TrEMBL record:
Family matches, as Gene3D superfamilies: 1.10.8.60, Homeodomain-like, P-loop containing nucleotide triphosphate hydrolases
Keyword annotations from UniProtKB, A to Z: ATP-binding, Nucleotide-binding, Transcription, Transcription regulation
GO MF annotations, alphabetized: ATP binding; sequence-specific DNA binding
Organism: marine sediment metagenome
Any Pfam family: HTH_8
Span of domain Sigma-54 factor interaction: 1-119
InterPro entries: AAA_lid_NorR, Homeodomain-like_sf, HTH_Fis, P-loop_NTPase, Sigma_54_int, Sigma_54_int_dom_CS
SUPFAM superfamilies (alphabetical): Homeodomain-like, P-loop containing nucleoside triphosphate hydrolases
Biological process terms in GO annotation: regulation of DNA-templated transcription
Protein name (database record): Sigma-54 factor interaction domain-containing protein
Length: 209
């Protein structure tokens, strides 16, 4: 099995590449991470006991995000930097909102929520309204970061861009990096047309006959 082969590599520091007969040596340090209780898997026969004790040399327990809210500001900054959004500023009211959420999805959910908020904010500063899943009514479950899919994010971003440029189709299309024809198709998908915005205007090119 894979576990037996892995244990052999750890103990002997030897391995063979797929399709080779030559035995190779490798010196390495092994770092393992899991969100499962491996002892439970050992008791259930799903994880080898000898492999467990071989890798269980210096365990480090990392609490879930909801148990270390003091780390949230640093994690938010790190996530934004990793997404090339280091220039984005998170206001104090947004940070309080993030701090009041329990984060059942941990860091992965935090990343999704921040990425969605940056998309919704466009060139502006994220505000509480850009975090719709984090301030639901009491008594109703708060939607997670997976509630919105990419199509919904795109639709909302287009609507906000149209409003931001006061219906100027040319500027809206340029800011979104799409052609005017693509803008028409996306508006049609949204169930809108060029006249749905009070000041929305397209200047169609004149084609000589």
């Amino acid at each position: 099995t894979v576990q037996a082969q892995f244990l052999k590599v750890i103990e002997e520091k030897q391995y063979r590449r797929v399709g080779e007969v030559k035995v190779r040596r490798s010196e390495f340090r092994l770092i393992c991470a899991t969100n499962h209780d491996l002892l439970v898997h050992v008791d259930q026969g799903k994880f080898r006991k000898d492999l467990y004790f071989r890798i269980h040399v210096f365990p480090v327990q990392i609490p879930s995000l909801r148990k270390r809210q003091e780390d949230l500001p640093g994690l938010v900054r790190h996530v934004l930097d990793s997404m090339s959004h280091g220039d984005v500023t998170i206001p104090k009211d947004v940070m309080r909102l993030l701090g009041g959420y329990e984060w059942p999805g941990n860091i992965r959910e935090l990343r999704n929520v921040l990425e969605r908020a940056v998309l919704l904010a466009g060139e502006g500063t994220p505000s509480p309204e850009h975090f719709p899943g984090l301030h639901s009514d009491a008594g109703s479950p708060a939607p997670t970061a997976d509630t919105w899919d990419l199509d919904e994010l795109e639709d909302e971003h287009i609507r906000r861009a149209i409003d931001h440029f006061s219906g100027d189709a040319r500027k809206t299309a340029q800011s979104l990096g799409i052609s005017r024809a693509t803008m028409y198709r996306k508006l049609k998908k949204l169930g809108q047309d060029a006249s749905s915005h009070p000041s929305f205007s397209f200047t169609r090119p004149v084609v000589a006959k």
